[in-house]
Amino acid sequence: MNALRTLVFASLLGLAAPALAEDVMVTLTHGKVAPPEVIVSMGDTVTFRNESNMPGGHSIVADDGSFESPGLGVDETWSHTFHKLGVYPYHIGEHPNAKGKVIVE
């Protein structure tokens, strides 16, 4: 409710309203990331959800080492908030050929 009041107040004053952070979902299955590429804004959060029942789960590993999730069991999630502009390629730790990319604009 406070965010809505801020937006209404800012628009009444003719000010630029602050952008609200988004949460984007990426699904992990056995050897696949969907969608393989997401575009977000600075401050947005990407949540990774494992839908595979592979023993030991799946982890998400940034190619540049900037983030890494723990092993996620089936239906578990892990989130990462992106605070800097850039392109962040990553892969499923247990399936190095299962790749994805987060683009922060």
Order of helices and strands: HEEEEEEEE
Helix/strand/pairing category: mainly beta
Mean pLDDT: 85
Q: Uncertain regions: pLDDT < 50 for 5+ in a row?
A: 1-19
Q: What share of residues are in beta strands?
A: 35-45%
Report on the architecture of this protein.
- By secondary structure, the protein is mainly β.
- It has one helix at residues 2-13; strands at 23-29, 32-34, 37-40, 45-50, 60-62, 77-81, 86-92, 95-104.
- The protein is globular and about 35 Å long.
- It is 11% helix and 43% strand.
- The strands form 2 sheets. Strands 2-1-4-6 form a 4-stranded mixed β-sheet, with no helix packed on it. The chain has a 4-stranded mixed β-sheet with strand order 3-8-7-5, with no helix packed on it.
- The protein is built from 1 helix and 8 strands, in the order H-E-E-E-E-E-E-E-E.
- Mean pLDDT is 85; it is low at 1-19.
- A hairpin with a 2-residue loop joins strand 7 and strand 8 (95-104).
Question: Can you give me a brief rundown of this structure?
Answer:
By secondary structure, this protein is mostly beta strands. Helix content is 11%, strand content 43%.
Mind sketching the topology for me?
Blueprint: H1 2-13, E1 23-29, E2 32-34, E3 37-40, E4 45-50, E5 60-62, E6 77-81, E7 86-92, E8 95-104
Parallel strand pairs: 1-4, 3-8
Antiparallel strand pairs: 1-2, 4-6, 5-7, 7-8
